[in-house]
Design goal:
The structure holds two protein chains of two kinds.
Chain A lengths: L15 H8 L4 E5 L5 E2 L14 E5 L3 E10 L11 E8 L4 E4 L1 E2 L11 E8 L5 E7 L2
Parallel strand pairs in A: 7-9
Antiparallel strand pairs in A: 1-2, 1-3, 4-5, 4-8, 5-6, 8-9
Chain B lengths: L7 E8 L2 H9 L7 H16 L8 E4 L5 H8 L5 E4 L2 H14 L4 E8 L21 H4 L8 H16 L3 H15 L13 H6 L2 E4 L1 E2 L9 E9 H7 L4 E10 L8 H4 L4 H15 L8 E4 L6 H8 L8 H8 L14 H4 L6 H12 L12 E6 L4 E8 L1
InterPro entries (chain B): Thiolase, Thiolase-like, Thiolase_C_2
Organism (chain B): Leucobacter denitrificans
Pfam families (chain B): Thiolase_C_1 (PF22691)
């Protein structure tokens, strides 16, 4: 059986270290070296203090679900319907789109605490995902 | 500098026959391409204006059609021109007229999105591999414009205490208006129960929350106020405009998910109200860019039609359909009339102010408000006399 490819990111130059860190199961985000503002997506300057100095730092992996949806129509072969997507706010501040692994909350998912985990897709790609916190 | 009130007015409107083209496209025909639809609409608008074509010295073309080709087809060598979406076109025409770059501007839009099989989600979606969301969303299977609005709607509904039935009021009201509009593609009325029983596309949004995808064209002729007064029996003035954007966190959806565009809508609204000298209480009708139904409650709160947090009561107790407190999207909007990417709303504003809206005419309508909030770019236009 043919394996549906995971939709590949088309990273801009600043995003490459993010995807490298994900591949190593060590998710890092860019951070301003001067004012310590976290950035996702990564970029050329700090939107807060305009500094061009940046570092990459591992995130805590703690997050909260902001919203979730269920696709009832299949748009991508790797994700046949019904397919669920979440938006989480990392404790560092940025919002990420992802998926929930494992057990699902009953009722509303909004406000549920989740923790970072890594999924290996059928085609071998590593994706950062989240599971309900213990 | 305070912007001049009523610098420009709309003197001509035109559109293609959306209903006939919908049927023909569904039967497998290809009635026209985007240039063809735009040209048909232009012919109508020019005729409606009654002015000589030679007086047109400006041209703005919708983003779905090549500008130079459009000018070539219409025979317009203008001294000012460009390409923009619906609301930007109106604002740019207004600015160009006020700045003296042009006196009479034709705005033309054509789209063969249905017959061309345009995709708004998935790997072949517009923008394809270079679209920003392909880096930040699609690896997790998040694609399609509707899904972005579904994420917004879920959180918004929970924060505002709205049920799906409350949300269904938007689609039900707009379909009721469309039932009175012969130019609307979907005219069969629906109930809240029909809405709830309908299929989900991206939950919590149902199929009735999504805009249509159809072929067609729209054109407008906007002129300097003095010229309009001299040449047109029934000009409709642009009384006020405003714009405010939210870009911080745009890629990670912060303005959509947690701000619901509210600060930008409030600012754009305030600017337009000040210039026009009117407020939401003075509007006879409210037209909202509605690629998805959720735009409507966001705009009702954002532009001050109801207090923030009370949109559920506004929708269910006061009402936005026929007989309701505030007529909203009286043509049926993108959900039921036609998906002309905001262009058809401008035509409806003009028709209502001209008292030419037929069975759905708002009695003695003098002032009509149009707003859009596409991707955090919030804009407000007040039409009237």
């Amino acid at each position: 059986m043919e394996i549906a490819p995971t939709p590949q990111p088309v990273p801009l130059v600043y995003d490459i270290p993010f995807w490298e860190s994900v591949k190593n199961k060590d998710m890092q985000l860019q951070r301003c070296a001067d004012c310590a503002e976290w950035r996702y997506p990564a970029g050329p300057i700090c939107s807060q203090c305009n500094s061009e100095n940046a570092v990459w730092e591992r995130v805590s992996g703690e997050a909260e679900i902001l919203s979730w949806v269920v696709f009832h129509k299949t748009y991508l072969p790797a994700y046949p319907a019904p397919h669920k997507v979440i938006a989480v706010r990392l404790s560092e501040g940025p919002i990420m789109i992802s998926n929930l692994e494992g057990k699902e909350p009953e009722g509303s998912w909004i406000g549920e605490r989740v923790s970072l985990c890594y999924s290996e897709m059928p085609d071998g790609m590593i994706l950062p995902r989240f599971a309900l916190s213990e | 500098m305070v912007r001049k009130r009523s610098a420009a007015a709309i003197i001509g409107i035109g559109q293609t026959d959306w209903v006939t083209d919908w049927k023909r496209v569904r039967a497998g025909e290809k009635p026209a391409d985007s240039v063809g639809y735009a040209a048909q609409a232009f012919q109508q608008a020019l005729k409606d204006s009654g002015i000589p074509k030679g007086d047109i010295d400006g041209l703005i073309v919708g983003p779905t059609t090549a500008y130079e080709r459009m000018g070539e087809v219409l025979g317009l060598n203008v001294r000012w021109g460009g390409q923009a979406d619906a609301v930007q076109s109106v604002l740019q025409a207004h600015m160009a007229i006020e700045a003296g770059y042009a006196k009479v501007i034709a705005l033309v839009y054509g789209n063969d999105q249905r017959s061309a099989g345009t995709q708004y989600g998935g790997p072949a979606a517009m923008g394809g591999g270079s679209f920003l969301s392909y880096v930040y969303h699609s690896p997790w299977g998040m694609t399609s414009q509707g899904a972005l609005y579904a994420l917004t709607a879920r959180r918004y509904q929970e924060e505002r205490g709205m049920t799906e039935a409350d949300m269904g009021e938007v689609a039900v009201a707009q379909r009721a208006w469309a039932s009175m509009n012969e130019a609307a593609i979907q005219r069969k009325t629906i109930t809240v129960d029909d809405y709830i029983e309908s299929r989900y596309v991206c939950e919590p949004l149902h199929v009735f929350d999504y805009c249509l995808v159809n072929d067609g064209g729209v054109a407008l002729i906007i002129a300097d106020a003095e010229y309009a007064k001299k040449m047109s029996p029934n000009p409709v003035s642009i009384l006020g405009t405003g714009r405010s954007d939210l870009n911080t966190g745009a890629t990670s959806l912060e303005p959509r998910l947690t701000d619901y565009y509210l600060p930008a809508q409030q600012q754009a609204g305030k600017d337009s109200y000040e210039i026009a000298g009117v407020g939401p209480e003075d509007m006879d009708g409210f037209l909202v860019y509605d690629s998805f139904s959720v735009h409507v409650p966001l705009a009702l709160e954002g532009y001050g039609y109801t207090e923030v947090g009370t949109v559920k009561q506004f929708l269910t107790e006061q009402g936005i359909g026929p007989g309701g407190k505030l007529p909203v999207n009286t043509h049926g909007g993108h959900l039921s009339e036609s998906y002309m990417q905001g262009w058809n709303h401008q035509l409806e504003a003009v028709r209502q102010v001209r008292q030419q809206a037929g069975a759905r005419q708002i009695e003695n309508a003098k002032t009509i408000h149009y707003t859009s909030d596409v991707a955090g770019k919030c804009m407000s236009i007040i039409y009237g006399r």
